[in-house]
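Quick one: structure tokens for this chain, please?
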Amino acid sequence: MISDEEALEEFVTNLRDIKNYSSNTVDSYQNDIIEFKTFLKTEGMARGLMFIKNQKVAQNYVSYLSKKGLASTSIHRKISSLSSFYDYLVNEELFSTNYFKDLEEPKIPKRLPKVITNDEIEMLMESCDKENKLGYRNYCILGCLFGCGLRVSELCNMEIKDIDFVERTIKINGKGNKDRIVIMYDDLAKSLKHYISTFRVDLLYNSKSTENRHVFLNKNGTTLTRVGVRKILEKTVSDCGETFHISPHMLRHSFATALLNKGMDLRYVQELLGHESLSTTQIYTHVGYDTIKKSYSIAHPRAMKLNEKKDKN
């Protein structure tokens, strides 16, 4: 039997080198597993990760997390990390059973994704000072998040070579190292082209390295981070004199909702978002329910017939 440390090292190597997970995701998995190991030793339930003998230990851990007051989403994430860990060990014939598989967990309450309105988007974009290099950059950032539905990590990792200005598309390397093509609206393509050829060059001069090919740079000329993007969005809202909360993912939600409300096929939206499963995209259909009702009343033959009678009366 291999040690806990060796098992964890092999699992982390698999996530990083084989599955190509981001460093933040790998760290999250690792922390969840180490936390469980600490629980085992503190509670005296097993000598370590490789010594658990039944599912009762796993069930006790769920109860422990619940009593700590953790949100059901956090508990699900931690259990998912442990299930992935033991799945890997079982597949590699390093452990006999994944006791975290099919474990009963607290139900996650369904929540509709938060979106911002078209008017709010327009207000934020109009507030960007397009005569200023940072203001113009911020204008393009808003355009990419709302206009292309990018994740914040995808935005930060985007390079100049990924953009096709002729076809008005961007090749995005998304979750699981999977590539997809997103579409730019005309003004975004023109704005990005202008930013890259002018203001981005100015920003790059602030850096000691001129080899950086990432599209979005910070004021020091280095690659913009996810934290940096969030701060830019918060400052943009504040500069407008508003107090509402905004996040990169909220703009991604708003992108999907806007397309569905205008009648775009769910499968096309799935492709643009880079969702592996259609069920992940379907969460946005709740937001566009009024549009669905309107479409139904126009398209269904019985509804059309009744509407025609109403019009005649």
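The chain has 15 helices and three strands.
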